[in-house]
Amino acid sequence: MKQEKEMPFNGDFEDSEADDDEVSQESESEEEQIQIKKKKKKVVNSSKKLIMNVSDTQYPVVKFVGKMIYKFKLSYVPYLENNNWDFCWTDNAVLPETLSKMQPHQRINHFPGMYSLARKNHLGRNLNKMQKQYPDEYDFYPRTWMLPSEYGDFKAQFQKGKAKTFIVKPEASCQGKGIFLTRSIDSINPQEHYVAQRYIHKPLLIDGLKFDLRMYVMICGCDPLRIYLYKEGLARFATQLYSSPHSTNLDDACMHLTNYAINKDNPNFVFNEDEKKMDVGHKRSMTSVFDLLRTQKQNVDQLLSDIKDLIIKTFCAVQPILQQNYTQIENYANNMCFEILGFDILIDSSLKPYLLEVNHTPSFTTDTPLDSYIKKNLIRDAITLMNINVKTKNDIISQKKDQMQKRVLTGKKTKLSYEEKRVLKMQAQKERDEYESKNKGDFELIYPCDKSYDEYLQHAQKLYEDWTGANIRRNMKRDTIAELPKPQSCSQKPILNQKSQLYKHVQSKVNTNLYPTKTTKADQEVTQEEPDQTLQQGPEPIQSQPQLEPDNFVTYEDYQQSESLKDLYNFAEKRIPEIQLIDLIQFRRAESKQDNSSFQMIQMSQQNSLSNLSPLMQIKSIQDQKNEKKFSIRKQNKQLKQFDQEQLYFQPQPHYQPPIQQHSISYQQQVQIQNGSFVKPKVFSLKLQHPPKGYKLQSLPILMQQNYTKQRYEQGV
């Protein structure tokens, strides 16, 4: 956007449209007022001009920059009541709830959670935590105590020899209100909330006066941190000649305090009346002070480097808090919030900078030409740096519409993976770097930089997790998992990588328990006389692997709990319904062997091919060779596909009633035609409660196909 850099600002600004709106509201009819209220409920501004909400700011320079330089339309409706704005400037803190309701194209000039820097007690507490870990790196602020919580430690400072001077500030005040110096603990109420600091008694003086620097720092991203330092600032001078503090001058605020609000009422205060003469008066430009120090052969470059390092380390201490409060998780550009902070820096006689405090709403009053010039350009460059314009807004809205259309067409919201989000962040960051490098004005990017601050950020994250209890919950969960007792079978569980190994191990284990001796000749004669009893003899180890799912069989860990045959049978008793069903099937089969000639002929024809196979392969071979059954796997709905009865091997007997009532009821509810549905097989260990005379029980785990068993059961085989 085209900027008018030389547009003068005399400190006063009145928006004529604001008065016109008030007059028009009085003259409008009720219907027109209802229509206006409906328009105000719109979330997105459809006009060609951006709307800047200034309902919560008192500074005319903010309105002047928005209206006269950027041609924004100013809105005076409270931004919490009406979301129809594109850019909001407020003098107060912003809550996370406000940020969560914002649209992707909207911008606001505060970060939620900035109290961690702006409040004196929070700032001191966060810096003290970091100083315990890094005492040498975090020595850029005076030693600080939070009262009354640290009253005992602070009281001990008055009992150690030479008297010391402390400066005491209310924990939530500004403009020098309530600040006093003391050398006695009796002057402090132990019940009041204060922030006490060691007084720096050897400050750097110019013209015999104590001064500090108001440096403007802009944070425009918290995840990751993105920090800019404005090249111009203010130097605020005291109005009384400085002398070391003692009991007679502790009450002289105009000597020890440099706040503009305190010194401007002193008769000695000299105002700056010409913006071109920035080195005159008790409020000067920061660059004029640096130029003066250079003439005194002071190392200003090292001073600026130390100040930048100080600023970055301060933000590192609170970065986890800012990140936690930044609730816009899909803002990959990391640019919905920005904030201009006022860092108050005091320089001692050795040219070492000290951080006094941080202001989240620095004063933008413009009662002098110097203030008007610096603060107008500061706000102008900040808006330009944040890329707040119509083109950027339209691009973001169009991207959002494309995402919504894609969601409507697909019927679901696309969930991006961590890698995809990382790529989007990197792409957005690259585009932002390219823009800001060309439009940063008088701002200087100080972080990210060549120096690494990851160590401080990681420790700050650890401190934040300890403070919120995140580490405690994580450690408790880890300890709970570690203390859980391991199953007894875990120590004996064999490592089986393939399903075939599982079957082999189970069969070899059962064979060892059930068949410790070789078969006799009598058994072989019985086998020759009764070929249909082939399935009941001790099978050979399974040589092939059936194509089954991992959960289609009972794992070996259930069998391995005991070594004896008795315990193995006890395990089989847990599956009484299945065992009773198979028991009945085998009994009926032996009883009606002679009556069912058709089934006997089929079994005799397949005796040679099946005699050397295990029960698993016997069932599988019948299915593969005859190819007269079709199976359909339906894991989602378990619906059974129907096939013609001619394709089935056995024909049902509709008049046959199962002897077990519970199975009869379940069979009557099913469709009375055969189907080829494949039901998950199970492994059983059989035990006949009352075996018939001369009947030999097969003692191996049987892999049973349920529909095949049902057919045999209904046939009465």
UniProtKB/TrEMBL annotation:
GO annotation (BP), single: microtubule cytoskeleton organization
Keywords: ATP-binding, Ligase, Nucleotide-binding
Disordered: region residues: 1-35, 513-548
Sections of the chain in a coiled coil: none
Amino acid composition bias (Polar residues), ranges on this chain: 533-547
Keyword Lipid metabolism: no
Acidic residues bias locations: 12-33
One GO term describing the cellular component: ciliary basal body
The keyword Nucleotide-binding is assigned to this record: yes
Molecular functions (GO terms): ATP binding; tubulin binding; tubulin-glutamic acid ligase activity
Full protein name: Tubulin-tyrosine ligase family protein
